[in-house]
């Protein structure tokens, strides 16, 4: 599997019904909320399937079954398993960024460390499919810079410290190590963060 990148926004569908209400940015619609809930449920199912079987061992059918939907419902949202994996990775990055942003900076770093060290999908991939995990973690310099920028904003830290924290967290994805060492290292890094 190649490196995972967020998908670009999709263009409007040709022949879209002229009677459909125009979307107003920031506005919510019932159908939009339902689609979002369905997509969220599909990604939750994907996380369960990938944590149980790994990426290679999972199929679109096993993802749909784990999400409790028909395979056709999954295909309405995603064309391939790689697309599901990219969407799950993007959703997890968003979730972790929101988590970090909601905590004081020192607590955020500790929480992020525990999240990536214990993430069931990452642990399964590290055990069963290390090459797939490595491919997922490989990114372009531009994407890395964006990840560091997001981490700097969430931690309210300067980019140099965010770079250090990002590299430490990446190391924890590959090898989580001992919880006590993780905690001590996190506390030492947190001392460098603004209070």
Any overview of this molecule?
By secondary structure, this protein is mainly alpha-helical. 71% of the residues lie in helices and 0% in strands. It has helices at 30-57, 60-67, 71-77, 81-101, 105-118, 120-128, 130-137, 141-155, 159-174, 179-190. Helix 5 (105-118) packs antiparallel against helix 10 (179-190).
Query: What's the pLDDT, averaged over the residues?
Result: 83
Query: In this structure, how is the largest beta sheet organized?
Result: none
Helix count, per DSSP? Answer: 10
Secondary structure: helix percent:
over 70%
Class from secondary-structure proportions:
mainly alpha
Spell out the helices and strands N to C: HHHHHHHHHH
Strand content: under 5%
Number of E-state strands: 0
Report low-confidence residues grouped into runs of 5 or more. Answer: 1-25
Q: Shape from CA axes?
A: globular
Radius of gyration (Å): 19 Å
Q: What is the end-to-end distance?
A: 41 Å
Helices and strands in order:
Layout: H1 30-57, H2 60-67, H3 71-77, H4 81-101, H5 105-118, H6 120-128, H7 130-137, H8 141-155, H9 159-174, H10 179-190
